[in-house]
Design brief:
There is one protein chain. This protein is an alpha+beta fold. The chain has a domain of about 90 residues. Strands 3-6-7-8 form a 4-stranded antiparallel β-sheet, with no helix packed on it. The chain has a 3-stranded antiparallel β-sheet with strand order 5-4-9, with no helix packed on it. The longest helix is centred in the N-terminal third of the chain and has 29 residues.
């Protein structure tokens, strides 16, 4: 091979190597992310993995903003439980509102009688003499009565121990609409006593068997018991 031919081959080889190097550099520039500043440390970090697309970052931020916390879920669950079970007090319960139920408590000094009237006829359709130590809790439900004109609504009620705040109203009757109802609150004239709890009817520590110091008559207390000499 002549010298001219050899020189031409060498020249083509050199040009090919330079072209390969240029392609590799261009490819490296395409896949290597730029050096980004580290906002926490103030220095610079080189990310080996490209940053996620903007749509992915926006979705993550949206999820972070809208995901409810455990405390929020607990509060919502507690509120829902009160709403389902019902909360009743003379002041309106935890969430006082119009139509949230009515509670009337009868005591020794104020024995209460509740009467609900149909104002169209002036006749009562419900009356209860609440025993002392008990409470009447009732509510009116609009609709689903047995007559669309005379009794289009329903009244639900229960008689509980005084101070009960939660429970299900287990009695129901159909009643006049709200515009034709009136609740009368009356206090009976004679003070009354509470009914004796059923569990105390056959108790062994009745007054007839008690020592004097444990009766209304009174008496000296026994000496204290010595548990050691």
């Amino acid at each position: 091979m002549s010298n001219a031919k050899i020189g031409e081959v060498v020249w083509m080889h050199v040009r090919g190597v330079e072209a390969d190097r240029g392609d590799a550099a261009a490819h490296s520039r395409e896949i290597t992310p730029a050096v980004q500043p580290n906002s926490r440390s103030g220095g610079e970090v080189s990310a080996d993995i490209p940053a996620p697309p903007a749509c992915v970052r926006a979705e993550k931020n949206h999820m972070h903003r809208t995901t409810p916390t455990t405390a929020t879920l607990a509060a919502l669950t507690l509120a829902a439980s009160f709403a389902l079970a019902g909360c009743y007090t003379p002041a309106g319960g935890y969430y006082p509102r119009s139509g949230g139920g009515y509670t009337y408590i009868s005591t020794e000094s104020s024995p209460v009688t509740i009467t609900v009237y149909d104002t169209r006829t002036a006749e009562p359709f419900f009356k209860m003499e609440i025993p002392v130590g008990k409470q009447l809790t009732m509510n009116f439900l609009e609709g689903k009565g047995d007559d669309p004109v005379l009794r289009p609504d329903r009244m639900v009620w229960s008689l509980w121990d005084a101070g009960t705040m939660n429970g299900r109203l287990t009695n129901q009757l159909t009643c006049p609409p709200a515009a034709a109802r009136r609740i009368a609150y009356d206090i009976r004239s004679t003070p009354e006593y509470r009914e004796e709890p059923p569990e105390f009817e056959n108790r062994i520590d009745a007054v007839r068997d008690n020592p004097p110091w444990w009766t209304p008559a009174g008496g000296p207390l026994p000496p204290p018991v010595k548990w050691y000499n």
